[in-house]
């Protein structure tokens, strides 16, 4: 490895042995997250244990002596792709300590992690969602990743209030038990246990989760704007929920509501009908990238529904 000969690579125990090292590095890399110990336990252990077919979330790290200087995490997911469901991973929380960024560690850690994942062989692909224009995208490509599609960011600004009975006909979700979410297009598949733990039992954050007939929506407020994290259901019912968001925006003082929207997004028509347009003041488009683990051909997705909740777990 040349200049990287002093560095060691191994699995990181984020919950026990390496917890404090992981938490310190994670929060230095992702300062806006300010991750708590409770969050790490909740996400890395409880969320990671929901996929019975998987060993759970894994974090690969690079060490300088005993110091953790780089991390690369992957969590198990189920992906609907055309007419079949496949096991995939989602790569997240990847970064190198700012004092070690001229040693080629981003690429070498990625290559090491991918090599280890190929040995474990749980996944067909591992997916990543880096923001468009970030320098890390080039590092991913050097490590063997391939571009799948670009996901634009849509927003609705200066939202008018809608009067009447819209909000009185929706339910606030406190538990997803009994709520069946059907996968209508290509995208990640989650069940009620995941949605309850993910959106109703977050240790550090309160989401706004609503249901109208078979449609559900998850909102994450950020002061004067809001992200749509998840959206599902029949098109007309989804349009109704998006109209409800207009009323909520006035109540909460959101200047902008935004969402991911790929060119082949299943709910693009609903977004456009509700006044959403391309571009946002509070958010950037992302590139869906994938690296082959067991798969022999590049990942192809057709009509998709990929929402911000894939990435915004903090």
Give an overview in words.
- With 314 residues, the chain is α+β, with helices and mostly antiparallel strands.
- It has two domains: 2-148 and 286-310, Aminopeptidase (3-Layer(aba) Sandwich), CATH 3.40.630; 152-278, Aminopeptidase, CATH 3.40.630.
- It has seven helices and 14 strands.
- It has helices at residues 19-29, 37-47, 105-120, 136-142, 192-200, 235-252, 268-273; strands spanning 7-12, 58-64, 67-81, 84-96, 125-128, 146-157, 171-172, 187-189, 208-212, 215-222, 225-232, 256-262, 277-278, 286-292.
- Strands 1, 2, 3, 4, 5, 6, 7, 8, 9, 10, 11, 12, 13 and 14 form a 14-stranded mixed beta sheet that branches.
- The longest helix is centred in the last third of the chain and has 18 residues, at 235-252.
- The mean pLDDT is 92.
- InterPro entries: Acyl_CoA_acyltransferase.
List descriptors.
314 residues, Aminopeptidase, 14-stranded mixed beta sheet
> What share of residues is helical?
10-25%
Q: How big a fraction of the residues is strand?
A: 25-35%
What distance separates the N and C termini?
Answer: 35 Å
Secondary-structure element sequence? EHHEEEHEHEEEHEEEHEHEE
| Helix count, DSSP H or I runs of 4 or more residues | 7
